[in-house]
Amino acid sequence: MKKTPYLFVLGIFCCFALLGSCQDDLDRITPAVAPGNTEVKPISDFNKVIYEVNVRNYSAAGTIAALKNDLPRLKDLGVDILWLMPIHPIGEEKRQGTKGSPYAVKDYLAINPDLGTDADLKAFITTAHEQGMEVWLDWVANHTAWDHSWVKEHIDFYAEKNGQRPYSPDGWTDVVELDYSNPALRQAMIDAMKYWVSEFDIDGYRCDAVSFVPVDFWKEARAQVDAIKPITWLAESDNPAYAAVFDMDYAWAFNTSLNEFGHQQNLDQLVAACNKLVNNPNYAEKSRMVYLSNHDLNAFEGTEFSRYGNNVLPLTALYFTVYDMPLIYNGQEIGMNKALSLFEHDPIPWQPTNATYLDLFKRLTRLKRTQPALTGGKGRSPINRYPTNHDDQVLVYSRTQQNNEVLVMLNFSNNPIRFHFTTHSPIGEFVDYLKDGSTHFSTHDPLVLPANGYAIYVKNPQ
Q1: How does DSSP assign 165-206, residue by residue?
Q2: Which of 107, 173, 256, 399 has the most CB atoms in a 10 Å sphere around its CB?
Q3: 206/221 same-domain check
């Protein structure tokens, strides 16, 4: 038993050393090399990590083959699920930008030739499966490109509005709305979804704009697709009515709260949002995806750095530990501060890599996938907040499952903070998850977190 926790020693150093920028502080407290995740397996279906890939922008080549070559790195990062943004040919009529939006699908049964071939996708999926990773496709059911063959051959597949058929949904000028009152359209769409499961052995669908399509269609689609192979279904929605069909959806309101916190820095509101997320009765036996960034946020609302300022790292620790299925958007793991275009070939600048970010992501994926305290779905544990004398800037909480407890300490201030527990402290011996050593806590021993800093401790680590 140590009388003085490690964080106190670290804090004295941070307070009196000649500190540089906030980033320099964090570099000093984070080991240079994180352990790999190659042999680590998630302990449950709700302890998995999702990775969103824009194939066109992932590499300079912008191909499926180039992505396949990077699978060992993604495995080592700790990725379980690879969600590929739409891989289909993109419409040319009323196209946005030079390359067009992947969500303007011209042919549901083909692969965009810019990305590769059927053989390339099959080889990619086979290799991913060999490395223990799932592959999900992004499915756009609400609309097609203007030059999809259905526009000429099956105009009755399209919705009518104010005497116009087809028409574009508000704000989406490069696509046209489908009509799900037509049984023939429904079956054509389901047959297309079945094709990628039966012929390519995919493992799931991330379904775009889900709530724009009737829920009874999704019930019908899931029954037919799962009859071939049970897959996972993620809804781009936060409508509980669709949770009856889908395995998980977006924790949209929570992300909105994160963005509000980025601007307002109101820690009480952030804590309330965390508790609301965890205790939502509509998802007691379901799951939700949590995220700081995705293709929409990155392209249209700014990078994490423009939305969260100096608190990107503590919020990263938060979203990996507070709830269920964390999402990494390609490039996020290296601290990429770039908005990627959805309408051009706009490659991710993989170099230079920010070692602090990459290290933290590797450690968080391992933590998420191995600790029972962070299990989601039916076994989800509540958040236990530990009060401190700086609750306006410091958040300390834990989640517990039997004898396993994950303790998270976050400083949302731009200055180092010396603090202590007030009413009660964590009980027992905790291993410092980001550094070596272990400690016991008390209400009288002071602790210090660097500016915008974070610490994670685990009792009885698995």
Answers
A1: SS-PPTT-TTEEEB-TT-HHHHHHHHHHHHHHHHHH---EEE
A2: 399
A3: yes
